[in-house]
Design a protein that fits this description.
single chain, mainly beta, calcium ion binding, 79 residues, TSP_type-3_rpt
């Protein structure tokens, strides 16, 4: 886990949870944190261990990352 990242809100609404490499575990999470139904956090498991390795935050929801950090940004996915 890493330090907490600033997002648009305090909620975690998983819009997409995907197993992109077909190993049976999620490795992509697309998250809405303010309840507007639009994603503002994108998380990736790049090494297949089931934990978030990279978190991208788009606070302005304009498709341009505002912050890219190593780790889950204090927002681990629900298991």
């Amino acid at each position: 886990m890493s330090d907490s990242v600033e997002t648009r809100g305090d909620e975690r609404n998983d819009l997409v949870v995907k197993d992109a490499n077909n190993d049976g575990r999620p490795d992509l999470w697309v998250v809405d944190t303010d309840g507007d139904g639009k994603p503002d956090v994108f998380q990736f498991d790049t090494d297949g261990d089931g934990k978030v390795d990279i978190t991208i935050v788009d606070r302005t929801q304009d498709g341009q990352p505002d912050e890219v950090i190593d780790g889950d940004g204090g927002m681990p996915p629900r298991t």
